[in-house]
Predict the structure.
Amino acid sequence: MTSLAVMYATGDGVPQDEAKAYSLYQRAADAGNPHALRGMAIMHMQGEGVELDLVRARVLYLQAVAEGDPVDHALESAMSSSMSSDQVAEADRLHEQWKANRKTAP
């Protein structure tokens, strides 16, 4: 699903359809694919097919890393340099909240 999402996001072999790409990323993320979370983060970071939302982008990126996707220092740096310190703090707070909820989920 994630590979298909990338294809729709980039128009590689299929007509480019960012809404379909995001939907596929979401389904893959719901199934536990951390790379899908990174794809969603990038879409939010760039406002591609979804609202440009740097806080949401950072939260999704941090979730991807927490779920096992490798750290991408270049992506992290690009994302953080576009954010205010308040936005970074809010994203980090939401990520900590997500982690706490994950620990208590059955």
Residues 42 and 76 are 10 Å apart (CA to CA). The longest helix spans residues 85-104.
